[in-house]
Amino acid sequence: MKRINLDTFDIIRHKKLIFSISIALVLFFIASVFLFGFNLDVDFTGGATLTVDFGRATTVEDSDALETLFKDTVQFAPSSIQRTGESQIVVKSTELNATNREALQTAIVEKFKLSTMEGASPISFDNIGGSVSKDIQRSVILSTIIAIVLMLVYITFRFELKSALAAIVCLTLNVIAMLLFYSVFQISVNSNLIACILTILGYSINNTIIVFDRVREIVKSDPMADFNQVINTSVSKSFTRTLNSSITTLLTITMIYIMGTPSVRNFTLPLMIGIVAGFFTSIYLAGPFWSLIRSKKDTEKTQKMKKIKI
Amino acid sequence: MSKHVMKLIVVLLAIALTVSVALCGIAYFDYPGVFDQDAIPLGLDLSGGSLLVFEADTKESPSADDMNAVISMMRSRLDTLGYTEAAVTKSGEKRIQIEIPEISDPGEASAKLGATAVLTFRNADGDIVLDGDDIAGAKAQYGPTSSVSGKYEHYVSVTLTSAAVSKFSAATTAAAAQSASKKNYISIMLDENVISQPYVSETITSSDIMISGSFDEAGASYLAGVIAAGRLPFALKEIQAQSLSPQLGESALTSSLIAGGIGVILVMLFMMLVYKMPGFVTSIALLEYTAIVAILLVMFRINLSLSGIAGIVLSIGMAVDANCVIFERIKEELRLGRSVPTAVTGGFKRAFTAILDSNITTLIACFVLYFFGTGFILSFAQTLFIGVVVSMFSAIVITRSLLKLAVKLKFNQSRYFGVKREEAAK
Fold this sequence. Notes:
A: Multidrug efflux transporter AcrB transmembrane fold; elongated; B: Multidrug efflux transporter AcrB transmembrane fold; Gyrase A, domain 2
């Protein structure tokens, strides 16, 4: 087996390529937001979701019949109707009041002869008023920003401000990669998203910190070392660990993805994307970016030192 | 037997003990094992059930007393509907959240729960003598209820509006006159339910009425809440209704648990393959880690939802990650030509700052989620928090002590750490 010689892992040399890919990703993201937008769930828009479990494979006829039944029962058309999973049909509409929900429940069970065992209903509702969805939106944005700012403060305290900025750029790119995925594949964006985003923030900052911890250690023992060289060494030395721990985390999450129910899948897929993105940003972007924003001051310092030496 | 073998046996026994406690609980303390029924309360997405959120339909923030009155009223209505297991919590300033487990058809409940409370005081013939408009306030109190006995009791003090005093005095006069036929009581009713039925022995002319009679503290504040609810200055509006069928939830839980189990086994195999002997140590530590997390989940009765399971899976990843960091450091030290015991000590020492910093940043995210999140986000924050703290303990204490013991027990050659001798000698 041929082994990569990690000692000559020159990441800085490829920094132009790395930055171009990162910028391209951001551009893709912006384009995708304009082209596809997001498939916002009722958590964010307010409204109702109605999930009917048929207990058997569904057909196009089922979904058409359900749409007609919906219209006849509540006197307005649903905004979307979609067959998901093996046996479910999801109907989305504007808010449904208790009377309408009750009427739909009875009508659907009767029409499709669905079995209702003691208290269990084959129909799930999720009805969210506008004020709640606004609150959810606010809590997503607020908690993400607060978490990022607090992490920034902590990293500045433990490392330096510029490393914190580099870490935040990586995090943002990870979140963008995830959101791009949500947008392109039109995965429904609901409250789960906030859990996903914060998981990825927490996880990928780990990887970045492992790299920066190396940098801190090397700079401490050899303050004269060329910063680019320090970055290269740190990335090389952290590479195996980052790869292995990303693989182990992916192992458990992938298992849950493979065996999970549709709702669990919706949750784990973006996590997988985030972890893969986290691996790449922490290895390829974090170090070079730190070096980029640090280099001027760093060079001056080094030159001064050299002059004194001469 | 050497000292180290003894130590190893003690550590392994301790691990076996935690695992068995996690699995079976401690019968003596009635402490349940993780798989026992109801050991871990399940979130609605796992148990199935309904979530209803009502909001006070008012511009100003309602007072805390008013909201407590709403909670009492909701409890009363839920009990009447037979949903005794329902949980009522205040969320934010003007919202009440109701979780009804195992009922996935909240239609009827929603309409009844959201109705405006109708409070009436009625005489024995069912005629209304007072209604919500006549009540100025109600408070649960503790003090002497009778000047004769001077006994301290919990009671409810109701204040009537000045207009109601004469109405009530007429009603009590009429009621007291019927004491011979035992019809000398006034029923306090919320909607159509009798909440309390105090007997009247004399005409009451004061604006403060005392309702006493073997209340405990909770009973008195409950009644006070219900009476106060009859004069709520706002209506309740349903703003969220969610129902989940339990079949869906059950299969989600079982499949996630099985998947998690297989995932952990795969992780163990991977670690043994990549890190050899330390990987084996990690597997034991991981077993202990899972057991401790399970015990803590049961102990703190963490409400487990799907997102909570995700939090646990993630923290398993982090637990393993700490081990990867340490073992890579040990390998490096070995490649520098250090002896195995020195390399192990050095590896742990050098890995420590990285593990500390990375875990603290994750904990920061946990705290933010905990304070700003609601419902299932809370479940995620709690499990991730427990997971991260235990993972640090697992890596820094369990893995280290086991690995050091293993080295002392002659597993002290670099090849056990996946470093070839010629590499180490370099």
